[in-house]
Design brief:
mainly beta, two-stranded antiparallel ribbon, 8 strands, single chain, globular, about 80 residues
């Protein structure tokens, strides 16, 4: 359960959520989105900015995912 901190894309000093790596890391797709070497699943356990938009999920806000915990795709640069 490696901790993960999500920061806003426009401002690297604004944390929008916290969580950890998902236990389903072997998945090849999630929410109709293919997972690649630059994507991973995280489980969000704490939302700090509910209105923050998550571009990897069709530009949905964090609050639209429902109650925590929930999984989402995290994009990172390798």
């Amino acid at each position: 359960m490696t901790p993960v901190l999500l920061y806003h894309t426009d401002n690297t000093t604004s944390m929008i959520a916290r969580g950890h790596l998902s236990p389903n890391l072997g998945a090849t797709s999630f929410d109709g989105i293919n997972l690649t070497s630059t994507h991973t699943l995280i489980e969000v356990t704490d939302i700090l900015v509910p209105a923050a938009i998550i571009s990897t999920h069709y530009k949905c806000s964090l609050k639209s995912f429902g109650p925590i915990p929930f999984s989402l795709i995290f994009f990172f640069f390798a």
